[in-house]
Specification:
- With 558 residues, this protein is mostly beta strands.
- It has 6 domains: 151 residues, Cellobiose dehydrogenase, cytochrome domain (Immunoglobulin-like, Sandwich); 66 residues, no CATH class; 68 residues, no CATH class; 50 residues, no CATH class; 72 residues, Immunoglobulins (Immunoglobulin-like, Sandwich); 72 residues, Immunoglobulin-like (Sandwich).
- A hairpin with a 2-residue loop joins strand 2 and strand 3.
Length: 558
Amino acid sequence: MKRILLIAMLSMAALGVQAQSKTTGSVSLTTGMTAKLDLNNDTSTATLTLTGPQDRWIALQFGSFTGGMAPGTDLVYYNGTTLVDASQNGVGATPSIDAVNNWTVSSNTVSGNTRTIVATRAFTGGTGDYNFVYTNTEIDFVWARGSSASFAIANHGSNRGFALNKTFSCIPPAAPTAAAQAFCSGATVANLTATGLTGATFNWYTAATGGSALASTTTLTNTTYYVAQTLSACESDRTPVTVTVTTVNQPTATAQQNFCTSATVANLSATGQTGATISWYAAATGGSALAGTTALTTGTTYYVGQTLNTCTSTRTPVTVTITTAAAPTASAQTFCAGATVANLTATGTGIKWYSVATGGTQLAGTTVLTTGTYYATQTVNTCESTTTPVTVTINAASATPTGAAAQEFNAGETIADLEVTTATGATVTWYTLSGTVFTEVPVTTVLTDDTTYYVSQDTNGCESAKLAVVVNQLLGTDKFSLKGLKVYPNPSSDVVTVSHASALSNVMVINMLGQEVASKKATDNSVQVNVSQLTAGTYILKVTAADGGTATVRVVKQ
């Protein structure tokens, strides 16, 4: 049984578990002789540490008494070999050795002239042993030692004495163990943790020594705290614990956020601390974070919080407005070839055009239209609507009018006198050109010499390309009527025919330097002049009538 108790005690020490214990401390009995008694309430064991001269017997009685050497008094003595468990038989009598030695010696060492013996036994011991009671506050010692260097129990002479009413004081437990700890803002001393003895209480301080224990409601800050454990009113040394407090503020977010139809929680925006995770909730406190795919609803208030190092902030409210944009209105439209997206029309705001009903890229305004279906959307408060289909028909341009590119006229004639061929029923329009600007003019416009007029026609709502007609005024004398004088074709590459109502006598071709380059005699009212040998350019035909009258006409040699 003694061995089992010792093993159990050593095992507890190996595990770092300190029992509920108290001690008398080292009691000086006489020079070179001391006694210390430790009581362990958890294991119900007493440990005696006895010192004395290494060359003679030493003895100690313990209990509660006013005198020593009374018969039956429990004592131990060292006989030169071991610590003997014995009982007094009275004055002058040799102590009786107990049938069972309840003391187990764990250490017997000598340093210089001093022997130190450490031994342990159970509180109750055995027959004749003193019964240690943990609740007792004090104990008496009686001591004796041999008067000479001999281990034979003999007369001690004056080497004896009493040490009465030696009080017990608790043995402080070892300092508790605790690691550095991290908390969120708002944590208190009650959140701190440490590991210690079973039944021990923990006290936390702001200093390694002194000061008062902190209340459990004390708010933690970034600093070092100190923890001690108390067992049987004995407080241990303090263990330092570094505490880190993470403060997470509310994220910042615009209080009113506007979105379009189909917006989700993923579209909400807020700004948090670096490294923090932003989460959105349907309530100011509690609940689970909303999935990013959760559809937003108009008029609803959502709440955003952030988490950093497992610490979560309070939440910021954000009210959401959802704008639903209606599709624009538009009807089927017809255009001429060359029309672009910019020509399309629809009723709405921020109109955009696409070539597909959904998705795709907005068409540029310069995109040329083709027959088919186009799709319009409108944008309201940055929100784009669904599409409206618009059927587009592209008509080909009308054919260009035909006619001589150079025509002559008599003074006073108008555009209506020019000869061009247009389709039956076509809308015919005449223009003049100034720089790059065409200006429509009426057919009653009086012709001006060496001017280019332009004519188009419209047979299907699409105006044709313009035919350019250069006009030249016919010049003549009073004896020669210009009316009825015809010169064709003009321009010409080979033969020019000149005719008049009256007889002609001669046609002369003069270049722009005033030189005659060709001529032809006439015998009637029509003559053909061969200009094929001439270089391309502008020439003057001088026409002489049989009656002597003359006229000049400008012609172009191709």
